[in-house]
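Progress note, project year one: complex with zinc ion.
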Amino acid sequence: MLDWAVGVDLGGTNIRVAKVDVMGKISQPIFVEIDKADKRGADAPNFAQIISIVEGMISSNQEHPPLGIGFGVTGPINVETGIIDNPFTLPAYFQGNIKKTLEDKFNLKVVVENDANAACIGEAIFGAGAGATMVACLILGTGVGVGVINKGVVYRGANGVHPEAGHVHVDPTGPLCYCGRNGCLEALVSGTALKNIGVERGVLTAEQNGKDLADLAEAGNKEAVQIMLEAQQALGLGVVNLIYTYGPEKIIITGSALSRSDSLLVKLQAIADEASAYTKLRSEIKYGSLGDWAGTIGAATRILKTL
Ligand SMILES: [Zn+2]
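Model obtained:
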């Protein structure tokens, strides 16, 4: 049996946990929604929902225990201390020192990673970016995450901070982002953004979401098509910013808010090639190949491989 690690991907809406082996294959996948209502009551310790899932997985594998726990979490997160301080997208009882909490509970090595980096690690090592030296990933979900892996090393800012390139500005006159500025990539192309724009323009009801907008566009709704075209244009500008900032060999686009189509890929590649004419480096645009489990696989990879 191959060595393995517990991979956890804590997003703004869901938790994904799985066994991940050294070949990047997952088993025993668990997918649950975050218990936002905290039904366990105020006395439950922080991270109780996650602890109980991980506990179940470890106890069902006692004959071959994991090498550790890789924990990917929606940013901002301090990967060195393991402290989650993210009131923007996570409830109060998902705040605190997750690294120390899990280490104390399970007596295992624990590595904490920004979720965008985790998904990028997964795709760069085992997915669509495998074999490339420099990979940038754009993850379109509830928000927009960006991760960059250069020669197997995660690109980080000073003191381990994650640069949050999902908040690059592509339209200074665009919608206000929760980060406090206008027209971030995230405020234009994330699932949340598409829903907000769709509702604002009367295309969606408050109960519908970004996926419904994509379906309406697919069915030929003119206003929905227009919104999707604007989002694609913003995504193209985001891709160009990544090319000029990092010079990646491959740009992987993935995430639950992405409506994949060959025509979008062709369009983004054309925009990328235009930028490449100046940088003289062709960046290939690809869709991710690991689906929604890229972050779980990547988080565990931080335990299974030296990155
Ligand atoms: Zn922003």
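Residues 102 and 110 are 7 Å apart (CA to CA).
The first helix runs from residue 48 to 59.
No further modelling is planned for this target in the current period.
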